[in-house]
From TrEMBL:
<dbReference type="Pfam" id="PF02746">
    <property type="entry name" value="MR_MLE_N"/>
</dbReference>
<dbReference type="InterPro" id="IPR029065">
    <property type="entry name" value="Enolase_C-like"/>
</dbReference>
<dbReference type="Pfam" id="PF13378">
    <property type="entry name" value="MR_MLE_C"/>
</dbReference>
<keyword id="KW-0479">Metal-binding</keyword>
<protein>
    <submittedName>
        <fullName>Racemase</fullName>
    </submittedName>
</protein>
<keyword id="KW-0460">Magnesium</keyword>
<dbReference type="GO" id="GO:0000287">
    <property type="term" value="F:magnesium ion binding"/>
</dbReference>
<dbReference type="InterPro" id="IPR036849">
    <property type="entry name" value="Enolase-like_C_sf"/>
</dbReference>
<dbReference type="InterPro" id="IPR013341">
    <property type="entry name" value="Mandelate_racemase_N_dom"/>
</dbReference>
<feature type="domain" description="Mandelate racemase/muconate lactonizing enzyme C-terminal">
    <location>
        <begin position="137"/>
        <end position="237"/>
    </location>
</feature>
<dbReference type="InterPro" id="IPR046945">
    <property type="entry name" value="RHMD-like"/>
</dbReference>
<dbReference type="InterPro" id="IPR029017">
    <property type="entry name" value="Enolase-like_N"/>
</dbReference>
<dbReference type="GO" id="GO:0016052">
    <property type="term" value="P:carbohydrate catabolic process"/>
</dbReference>
<dbReference type="GO" id="GO:0016836">
    <property type="term" value="F:hydro-lyase activity"/>
</dbReference>
<dbReference type="InterPro" id="IPR013342">
    <property type="entry name" value="Mandelate_racemase_C"/>
</dbReference>
Length: 384
């Protein structure tokens, strides 16, 4: 079997609500989902999901190769771009190709990827996370009612601009999950929006009445000293790593003892997650994948001993994707279809007309000018 080419198309995820975090929001609730289809001479196609703008840069590293040599091809792609580096769009393309390669490998074996990777069963525990910052309190509660209906007992909220508003939102959502557990697990994600001193003040103020399990990305992703300072002064765990592009970028965090939960972005692929998990295990730390459409890395999470919990951002899948998994019992139940269990209805995708993007100026992927420069624990609206 040889890799012969690739095709790409874009579908859209309809969140049916505004989404975002303290950095920005997407009021339309519609975002793009890039799809890569890796073709072979035997007619089997591998599917990868995520941004792959640099696919033409990395494809020569795998063209004509046997796709079943996944980890060797992953390292070959890294070597192909070593001089200019593998961050940003390049790492995204490598991750999506890697996802498609693993899909091909498992399809050739006639097994779901979770079984191909050695998992005993295809269930992955998870937590509810709705990219929910722009929602009103009533809409936030209604969203988490739907997650609670699927058996979740852990949840993460977006916040970090107003400590009293966050306290109110956590208290309201916690009530939702009391029907599933007497002690709902609560996490706060502030998306790199703070400096270290502000983060310590903010978290400690929140924890006067709330028992947070972790604070996520309190400061910039590369700030090992800042994460370490926060970790030493708060009682909840510190989680970070989703935006790191390569296991070498985790080393400063580990050397500084700056992190309690290592995270990996699903969009960076299967091999990256597996290597982060192995690195975390060497330091006796748990690993947690950050959510993405169709939860592809859940297959790998099922196969690692130190997986903690997988982020679940929505209960629906993008238009035109049939995904062999169910969200139930507080997690992801992966099916038995070979590969990632993702099939594509191109006719349905081509018939849609809605558009949306993560990268609009007011969206969460654009950093605000004053991020990390605030001294107050309340929003500007409350200060006036």
């Amino acid at each position: 079997m040889k890799i012969t080419g690739w095709r790409t198309l874009t579908t859209w995820h309809h969140w049916e609500r505004p989404i975002g975090d303290v950095n920005g929001t997407i009021e339309s609730g519609v975002t793009e989902v890039p799809i890569l289809m890796l073709e072979t001479d035997e007619g089997v196609t591998g599917i990868g999901l995520g941004g792959h703008a640099d696919i033409e840069r990395v494809f020569p590293a795998i063209e004509g190769e046997d796709p079943r040599a996944v980890t060797a091809l992953y390292d070959r792609m890294l070597a192909w771009v070593f001089k200019s580096g593998h961050a940003g769009n390049t790492f995204g393309a490598i991750g999506v190709v890697d996802m498609a390669l693993w899909d091909l490998k498992a399809k050739c074996a006639g097994e779901p990827l979770w079984r191909q990777l050695g998992a005993r069963r295809g269930f992955v525990p998870g937590y509810a996370s709705g990219l929910d910052y722009p929602l009103s309190l009533d809409a936030l509660v209604a969203l988490h009612q739907r997650f609670a209906d699927r058996g979740f007992s852990a949840f993460k909220l977006k916040g970090g601009l107003d400590v009293e508003q966050d306290r109110e939102r956590f208290a309201a959502v916690r009530e939702v999950y009391l029907r599933n557990t007497p002690s709902p697990v609560m996490m706060l994600d502030v998306n790199e929006s703070m400096n270290s001193k502000q983060a310590v003040r903010y978290i400690n103020r929140l924890q006067e009445t709330l028992d947070l399990s972790w604070i996520e990305e309190p400061v910039r992703r590369w700030d090992a000293a800042g994460h370490a300072a926060i970790r030493q002064q708060v009682t909840c765990a510190v989680a970070t790593g989703e935006n790191l592009t390569g296991i070498e970028q985790y080393l400063p965090l580990l050397k500084e003892q700056a992190v309690d939960v290592l995270q990996a972005g699903m969009c960076w692929g299967i091999t990256h997650f597996l290597r982060v998990a192995n690195l975390a295990q060497a330091f006796n730390l748990p690993v947690s994948p950050v959510g993405y459409n169709a939860n592809p890395v859940a297959h790998a999470a099922a196969a690692v001993a130190n997986h903690l919990s997988c982020e679940v951002q929505d209960l629906n899948f993008p238009l035109g994707l049939q995904v062999d998994q169910r969200i139930e019992n507080g997690g992801i139940l992966l099916g038995d279809e070979p590969g990632l269990g993702i099939s594509i209805d191109e006719t349905a995708i081509q018939s849609q007309h809605d558009k949306g993007s993560w990268t609009i100026a007011q969206g969460p992927h654009v950093r605000p000018e004053r991020a990390g420069l605030r001294l107050t624990l309340q929003s500007p609206q409350r200060e006036q």
